[in-house]
Amino acid sequence: MNTAEDTGQKTDDRGFATAARQSLNRNAAKPLNVLSSVLCPLSSELRGTLRHDVDMRRHVSWRAGGRVERMYQPADLDDLSAFLKTLPADEPLLAVGLGSNLLVRDGGLRGTVLLLHSALGDLRIEADGSVYAQAGVPGAKLARFAALHDLSGAEFFAGIPGTVGGMLAMNAGCYGSETWDVTARVQVITRKGEVLERTAQDYDIAYRHVVLHAEQEEWFVGAWLKFSAGAADVAREAIKSLLNKRIASQPLNLPNAGSVFRNPQGDYAARLIESCGLKGKQIGGAQVSPKHANFIVNVGNASAADIENLINEVQATVEKNTGFSLHPEVRIVGEAV
Ligand SMILES: Cc1cc2nc3c(=O)[nH]c(=O)nc-3n(C[C@H](O)[C@H](O)[C@H](O)COP(=O)(O)OP(=O)(O)OC[C@H]3O[C@@H](n4cnc5c(N)ncnc54)[C@H](O)[C@@H]3O)c2cc1C
After folding, report:
1. Catalytic residue at 208?
2. Which CATH number covers residue 277?
């Protein structure tokens, strides 16, 4: 993978064709199908931003890891649909929100990242009182919006530094609430660029686990969320106290990805890790946080391999000492060097 600068290029006709040509030159030794697709006539209709050879450290909260061959940030939902229609069926695709639960291995990622935060940002109250939020809306913005409209039950989103899309994919939650508890229905986009609606019945949903029953690749582009009637000042107070709790208990001053492991049935990953004396354990620039044992922090120039090796070491030690096998909550993608 080359290290050419990853300057964004608006996909006007000339920019898109130039970007594609540059990509062809750089990748002459390893052509990908997408290179021909970006030269097809449909590309002139696209309004988003295409970047090549992008450093994913800028797009994940761990600030570590490799690059991706291409990144497309759509202008809006129609544009995302048009972009998907230009791609060959086998182009590897990964949706990314705020990258707050994601590690890209140091060898990088083939294919295209669909960067949805600050792209799909519609947020509104519908006639039936539900909140429609597009996939790129951050949790904090959603929580503040619901509070502003005297709604209760969205406060927990304030402390999750992800997007609606990422929170739906992870069934993110905290303090007893989960994303799908308040999700009435979702809007998804297929590989062919079709926009569909789905409900919880279409998925297998559990703690940090969401799997579509149908064998089809698709991504969340929006959701209709149901909250109960409340009062703005009460919701704002709840958000404030929730954020204070996080500041007190989490190492928010260093790059991290939140809880690394899911809590096993009947126990807490943090308690098990701490009981094994692993707080402060360090590999390269990755460290088990002395403040919260289920967080791994980047204390300076950690590689993705440092982080993954530390994850493996924590897993092995906890299993050996306690019998519990911990499963990572964070998603690890890409190739090792
Ligand atoms: C300080 C800190 C605190 C955190 N606290 C919590 C917490 O309390 N509770 C909790 O559950 N999590 C927590 N997290 C983890 C993280 O914020 C959540 O998992 C969040 O849902 C990730 O959203 P994202 O947009 O950043 O997703 P990303 O990290 O960008 O992606 C995560 C996964 O979701 C997929 N994905 C992203 N967008 C879409 C989409 N539109 N359609 C389909 N798939 C998609 C990605 O491909 C990837 O597999 C915390 C993280 C940090 C850094």
Report:
1. yes
2. 3.90.78.10
